[in-house]
Structure formats: structure tokens, C-alpha cells
Here is the input.
Amino acid sequence: MSYKMSFPAEDFIPTRYSLLSRLKNWDDQDSWKDFFDTYWRLIYAIALKSGLTDTEAQEVVQETIISVAKNIQKFRHDPSLGSFKGWLRNLTRWRILDQIRKRTDLQLGAGNLAGKTDPPPDLASIPSTSEEESVWENEWRVNLMAVALENIRKQVKEEYYQMFDLYVLKQWPVAKVAHTLGTNAARVYLAKFRVSALIKKEIHRLENQGNHLS
Here is the structure.
């Protein structure tokens, strides 16, 4: 099973650098770049699954990361805010609600022109559901795996990653992998062991990344 995700990454390149310029009060730009590259796909995917358009989802990505930057010190000093994963989920949800609220306001504005005056819903008071939490957990795992695979692929020998990809991700029989790549089963198993260990370590690093932002 492949964990590669299909997102318009090239569309986010100008967004990323525009965003970083808005974070100029935080000195460690490399850390924020790393943070953006790690989490934008997660935030973007959740926004789309919430019914937002591509433009709205991109806005959620920017505003969520800006919220992280503005509040990261508060998060570090307030244990009641829980885990970084849960905190990021809440920030993402609030920014999604902001986009829904903007859309609702526009619709109400058009309705008022037509003589309709229904009050807007109190979106902030809507509690998150177990389904939303489940979607977040799933997207969190998929995103971290995708980022970890992408990062580790740059660090290991190409032949090792090929063996890992065919044997673990594509689930080929070990004999087929060995025959296709002109190697033996022992090397395939070794590649699986080494790459898996590196991926596990990388996922752990990514999970703790938020605690090391400036």
C-alpha cells in the first residue's frame, strides 16, 4: 500500500515563502519552512474534507500556521492545552470554521439584499464530533508517514529504498523483489529492517517537531 499523497505542491511554493515573510518576527526560518513542509498537506486535506474549496483550504493552511507561530510559546507554557497534535487539530478546526463563517456571511449578505434576515449560526459553539477526530487521526498518520518516507528516501541508498518500496509498500513477494533488482532475499530483509527503523525514528522526530519551533 502506497502512502504517497497527491497534492498540488507546486501551488504552495509561493504561498510558503509569502507565509515565511509574514513570520519575520520569528528568527528560525528554517524551522518554520520544515514545519510548513511537514504539516501543510495535513491541514489542506482536512480543510478539503470539511467541504472547503481549494482557495479556502489554502487560506486555512496559511492562517493555521500563523496561529501556531503566534501561540507556540503559550502552548509550551500551558500544559492544559494538551498534546501538540491535539492543539494543532483545534487550531486547524477554528480556521476552517472561520472560512465557513466568511462564506456564511457572504450568503447572508446576499440573502439580506433579497429580504431574508436569518441570523448566522454560532459555528464556534459546535462541538467536534468523534468522526472529525477519527478523520484527523487518520490524516495525521498518513501525513507523517508520507513526509517520513519522502525525507528518508533522500537519506538512504537508492537500492535500499527500492527494495523497501517494492517489498513493504507495494507488497511484492520477497523472491520477486530479489529477482527484479538482481539481489537476494537477505538483502531485501536487511533493507526493510534498516529503512523501517529510520522511518520510525523520523516519524518520532516529526511528532515532536512542534516543541522545537522558535
Summary: The mean pLDDT is 81. The chain has one domain: 9-212. The longest helix spans residues 84-113.
